Amino acid sequence: MSDRRTTRKRRTGPAADGAPAPAAVPGAGPRRFLRAALARVPLPLRGLRPRLLTSFVLVALASSLGTGALAFREARTGVLQQSQDSVINRFRTSIDAVARYIPPAPDQSDLQSAANQVLYANRSSGWRIMATYGGHRAYAPSAGFTEPSPEMLRSVRDRRAAVFQRMNVDGRPRLVVGMPVMYASEEGTEPRLSGLVMYLEVPQTTEEGYVEAMVSGIERATLVALCLAVVLALLAASGVLRPVRALRRATRRMAAGHLDVRLDVTGSDELADLSRSFNETAAELERTVRELRRLEAQGRRFVADVSHELRTPLAAMSAVTDVLDLEGEGETGEALRLISEGTNRLSGLVNDLMEISRFDAGVAELNRDEIDLAESVRRTVASRWWQGEVEMRLPGPGELRARVDPRRLDVVTANLIGNALRHGEPPARLTMAVREEGSGVAWAVIEVSDNGPGISEEAMPHIFERFYKASTSRARSESSGLGLAITAENVRLHGGRIRAANLPGGGAVFTVELPLHPAGTDAGAGGGGVTR
User: Fold this and answer.
1) What is 194-215 written as a DSSP string?
2) Is 336 exposed, middle or buried (0-12, 13-18, 19+ CB in 10 A)?
3) Integer Cα distance of 171 and 181 in angstroms
4) Which residues lie below 8 Å from residue 133, measured CB to CB, with a gap of 6+?
5) Distance CA 447, CA 128 (A)
């Protein structure tokens, strides 16, 4: 063998040379850190600040991890490639130095000598050498060499290039290189395989340390990026939430009735446009409400003035028609009675309108007096000649006393009984009792029921509205549609409650609850105006 040399190694990966992929799992550190970081990220909440914070953190996390993963892959590939190239070049140089002294058909001692020489030239690198030829094998040092895989042995035997394989032995990364020794040939022809193959096993502890250092650096950089993202998210959230909070406070003040509230507009972004739109809306709403209030006040004054002006002539007309009604006979008497009835209805409507106008103006007064409620109800029924048309179940004399406005209680009772007689066959039923609640508050409960068809579901929500009539089949009616509205206002003026319902067997029932004030108290008494 006059001139033996090794061929240049291939720069393709192990898969191209038939060697198995490395057993180590790169990138485990970043993946562990990613899972831990995602586990620490709080779930999005309803607030805008947590959502902005979460979005910034996720974007920063994805960006830093993506950049870190790409940098890690490239750096790791570069480190391993550089180490691999350096090891293979040194291995080739060492083999070239001893190959010329190996006989064409080396025996065991020749193989051992060649392995020892290669190891001696690189004794400080932690190398392990194995030389094979035919059935002979030689090791340097004598033990500890990792057996190459069958695929690698077959690849080295069949190819003319160096083959490498990364392996993990006892948890430590190692690089195994197989390099065939070839005969030199004449110019223009390929070298021939000599059958001698040298194997190298070298630890990659230093390279693994470099990789772990890169992982630690990427983790620290990611942590810094996350901290920076949190700071930026807090600053951005403060800038975004400041006008939003101002808008929330302004809307709450507007809901509370402060229509003159306005926002300070700064900048020209979307939030500034929103603030300007809010100010324009608030200004238009204030103008509209002011105009509505003006029209409402004007309407109340008009009704009060018209009612007041009509009251005196209607009173005179009622007196005259009462006198003429007694003297009239025949067709003239019938006409006078119709005029009298119309005048009385008009007079009642005017009185109701004046009462409603007092409620709207907030000048309705309570003149309380301590009375017997049952006796007051009896006087109301007797004064209207309803004794034979009303069934009453009332407490005994003096058992139920309360401080109320007698006139307004008379209006409440008369309106409810008149409504029951008007919409049902006599007798109407009236009951009165006392009910105590758990808080120690006592209520006087008055119930008035009728024998009519009841209240329809459509009419139930509107039964206490002004000028509302449950029956719209008749254009004319004895009722003005103000009686129940006035009743409800008088009950609320006393601090009570009123409700309407249908009885299971038919008919409607109205329930009034008035608070019973202890003796000696005078809540709302005397000429103080009580508003709704």
Assistant:
1) EEEEEEEEEE-HHHHHHHHHHH
2) buried
3) 32
4) 105, 106, 111, 195, 196, 197
5) 109
pLDDT digits (tens, 9 = 90+) for 158-198: 777 778 777 777 767 778 888 888 776 666 566 677 778 88
**451-454: long-range pairs with CB below 8 Å, 24+:** 451/424, 451/425, 451/426, 451/427, 451/506, 451/507, 452/420, 452/423, 452/424, 452/425, 452/506, 452/507, 452/508, 453/423, 453/424, 453/506, 453/507, 454/502, 454/503, 454/506, 454/507, 454/508
Judge residue 261's burial from the number of C-beta atoms within 10 Å of its C-beta, 0-12 exposed, 13-18 middle, 19 or more buried. middle
Q: What is the pLDDT of residue 33?
A: 59
Q: Return all residues near 204 (Cβ < 8 A) that are at least 6 apart.
A: 80, 83, 166, 173, 174, 175
User: Chain-wide mean pLDDT for the chain?
Assistant: 75
Question: Hey, CA dihedral for 464, 470, 475, 476, is it positive or negative?
Answer: negative
Query: 389: which DSSP letter?
Result: G
Which residue do the tokens 């996350």 mark?
226
How many CB atoms are located within 10 Å of the residue 456 CB?
11
More confident residue, 381 or 170: 381
Q: Is the pTM of this model over 0.90?
A: no
Residue 296 burial (CB count, 10 A): 11
pLDDT tens by residue, 265-287: 877 777 788 888 888 888 898 88
* Residue 309, CB-side half-sphere exposure with 13 Å CA sphere: 6
- Does an H or E element contain 221, and which? helix 205-255
pLDDT for 121 beyond 50: yes
455 DSSP assignment:
-
pLDDT for the residue numbered 12: 32
pLDDT digits (tens, 9 = 90+) for 282-328: 889 888 888 888 877 777 676 666 666 666 776 777 777 766 666 66
Our CA angle for 246, 247, 253, nearest 5°, is: 90
What is the rounded CA–CA span in Å between residue 333 and residue 328?
4
